[in-house]
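This section describes the prediction task in plain terms. A model, or a person checking by hand, is given the sequence of a single protein chain and must write out its three-dimensional structure as a string of tokens. No templates, partner chains or ligands are provided. The sample shown here is typical of the held-out split.
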Amino acid sequence: ASEKQFHAVQERVPKAEYRALARAIVLKRDRRNYGKGFISVVSAGTSDIPVAEEALATAELMGNRVQHLYDVGVAGIHRLLAHRAVLDKARVVIVCAGMEGALPSVVGGLIGVPVIAVPTSVGYGAAFGGLAALLGMMNSCASNVSVVNIDNGFGAGYVASLINRR
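The expected answer:
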């Protein structure tokens, strides 16, 4: 949603909130925590953050504790490894990545919990609007990685919430 759309909604729903990075208008009704653990949301690069924020907002609104790690892609793998303890404690991890979509496989190889891979439409060259990332993620040899569609942060947050409640 755009800021203009938010203002139109806010006129009718004053308690609505705008999450600009997630491009989402939200209305919090219940602040109870329904999850058994926490969900970690990871972005490979800074341009993947809007999709990651959509996943994060969805998971939070569904009553989960959420931690995020942003800009920890394979081009600087040391940034990811510095947060290994956080990844190890999560019940489920959402990984958003564009370009070739390598990060979910790396994360899946490091941890033993479900990884929900979200290909993003960002990238240049032969990224093909997220198709290269989607295909790379679908062909991951890490067996704990599942994939949602391109830019589907909502779907990833929803599925992660279901996993965290079990």
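For orientation: Helices lie at 3-12, 49-61, 77-81, 84-89, 103-110, 131-138, 153-165.
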